[in-house]
Amino acid sequence: MPESKRAIATDLTKLDAHEIQPEEYDDIPELTDDFFERAEFRIGNRVIRPGRPPLDMPKKQVTLRLDQEVIDHFRKSGPGWQSRINAALRAHISGK
What we know:
The protein has 96 residues and is mostly helical. The protein contains 4 helices and 2 strands; from the N terminus they run H-H-E-E-H-H.
């Protein structure tokens, strides 16, 4: 046996032959909705995080210097001003 593996002291044949009796189910906790909400989902050793699926063309973060007047113009219309700048640039390159 390789040195990195330790011998198992359990009789695996006996363990495999054991049939769980109804009274043994009392030891098993009930799986509630809360349990599944806090569960960690895995595929192999990789943890799968819930959330948005990856985009085909994700946006890239860049540093861009803009005139203060341009920033003020887009910011005064409220949240989402950066997306509106992106839309204006997109409209410009598509010729609209």
